[in-house]
Design brief:
Layout (H helix, E strand, L loop, with lengths): L4 E4 L6 E9 L3 H8 L9 E7 L6 E10 L10 E8 L1 H13 L3 E2 L4 H8 L5 H12 L3 H11 L2 H24 L8 H23 L1 H9 L1 E6 L6 H9 L17 E7 L2 E7 L9 H16 L2 E7 L6 H9 L5 E6 L15 H6 L1 E2 L8 H13 L13 H22 L4 H19 L5 H8 L7
Length: 451
């Protein structure tokens, strides 16, 4: 991290303003090489940017200098707010690179902030989550984590574990004496309370995961039942090609929408049927793979025709999935009795729609999130949204429960301490205190380059 790094901190493309960020020991020298010297910390000034050593003007920009350690990364940071022309921004970046700056890696600014103590790992991950947030609920949770709420709730638990560890470590120095029963009972209660609080945090993951990552919803059915029409109707736009020719959709289409503050990844799949067409058969296999990975499967049936063997096969194939049967083409005379679709749970969940005319689409949207709405009924508290955090919390709680069982069984302090030290290490991995370099590389590779 000795290099000075540079990156475009705003999205690529044309815009009113494009911000280029420099961070490192040479950030000020590089910026002053392209503009007037003597940048003042924390003062935004309008400057001309020129090609170093010439009078050729590249752009007029607002230049802001953040002096270390009071900056985002904890290093000297200079931000150049240029006009948002891709040509201009590329030119400024090129001049910075010529002056020995290096193009930043994904998430490297936030990684430096972590290394310099400006934020912990959970807060850094919240930066990524806030940028990626697709709903207001997801943004609220990311902001809470960014402000350190998760870390501040973990800190007392870590302190509690450390206190218990100190007691047990001290007891090892006096092996001839057992811990007094009162002290031992108190220690067991404290350990149980710590495990319970960790399990309480982990229990919020189901709601947090839905808010952050949303649902994967796959539309399946035999060819020509209206899957692409339903896909377009739910999106409110003509995203998929719709024809009367069976097998038009050869591969799955993927688009996102939001229903009642829950992100939904909607997937239109190829029609499920036996076929000798090589390309179509590949689409059918991909449809089955998507169906297996989906949180909810919409089984679409053409209600204007009698049930076919292909419909019955699809109903049997999806019986073990969380599914919703949708009867399409309600604008035509019905030839299917909902009571004979299949088992009672299927017929109870069946919804009649007309994808062509939009009838029943609002009811269907509500039905899609209905099985999951209870999990996100209350998002006022802090929720664990990251699978990595959930896994580490669960592991830490399991280790403490193991230590409690060992203590209750009269095991030695050395055995009891193993689980407590493991729990402390897992909790440290959440905030970055005990996280390996390889893990950090994997985490920050998911960030955008400008952050």
């Amino acid at each position: 991290m000795q290099d000075t790094i540079v990156a475009l901190a705003t999205p690529t493309g044309r815009s009113g303003i494009g911000v280029i960020r420099l961070s490192g020991s040479d950030a000020v020298n590089i910026a002053e090489s392209m503009t007037e010297p003597l940048l003042r910390p924390r003062v935004a000034t309008l400057r001309q940017l020129v090609v170093p050593g010439t009078v050729e003007v590249i752009d007029e920009a607002v230049v802001t200098y953040f002096k270390a350690p009071r900056s985002y990364t904890g290093e000297d940071v200079v931000e150049l707010a240029c006009h948002g022309s891709p040509v201009v921004l590329r030119r400024v970046l090129d001049e910075c690179l010529k002056l020995n700056a290096r193009l930043a890696e994904p998430g490297e600014f936030s990684l430096r902030a972590l290394a310099n103590g400006r934020m912990d790992l959970a807060e850094a991950e919240a930066v990524r989550d806030l940028i990626d947030a697709r709903t207001s609920a997801a943004a609220r949770q990311a902001i809470r984590q960014l402000r350190g709420e998760f870390s501040s709730q973990l800190r007392p638990l870590k302190d509690e574990l450390l206190d218990i560890i100190v007691v047990l470590e001290s007891a090892l120095e006096f092996v001839e004496d057992d811990l007094p029963s009162v002290q031992r009972e108190s220690m067991l209660r404290r350990m149980s309370d710590a495990a319970g609080r960790l399990e309480g945090f982990a229990a919020t993951y189901q709601a947090g995961h839905l808010i952050r990552d949303g649902l994967r919803v796959a539309i399946v059915g035999r060819p020509n039942v209206g899957k692409s029409s339903l896909f377009n109707a739910l999106l409110g736009s003509d995203r998929a090609i719709v024809t009367d020719i069976p097998g038009t959709t050869r591969d799955h289409l993927h688009e996102r929408l939001v229903i009642n503050d829950i992100p939904v990844s909607l997937i239109d799949t190829a029609g499920l049927r036996e076929t000798t067409d090589v390309v179509e058969s590949m689409g059918v296999e991909r449809a089955r793979s998507v169906m297996a990975d989906a949180d909810l499967v919409l089984v679409l049936i053409d209600a204007s025709e009698e049930l076919k063997d292909e419909d019955l096969n699809i109903l049997a194939e999806t019986a073990e999935f969380t599914r919703l049967v949708v009867l399409n083409k309600s604008d035509k005379p019905a030839r299917i009795d909902p009571d004979v679709i299949g088992d009672r749970s299927v017929s109870d969940a069946a919804i009649s729609i007309s994808a062509k005319f939009g009838d029943g689409i609002d009811e269907l949207r509500s039905a899609i999130i209905s099985p999951f709405s209870a999990a996100v009924s209350d998002t006022s508290g802090f929720l664990v949204t990251d699978a990595r955090h959930f896994d580490l919390l669960s592991r830490a709680a399991t280790e403490i429960r193991s230590s409690i069982e060992q203590a209750a069984a009269g095991m030695s302090e050395e055995i009891i301490l193993i689980g407590l030290h493991n729990a402390l290490r897992y909790m440290g991995q959440i905030t970055g205190e005990t996280t390996t370099e390889d893990m950090l590389s994997r985490i920050f590779s998911t960030f955008c380059i400008g952050k």
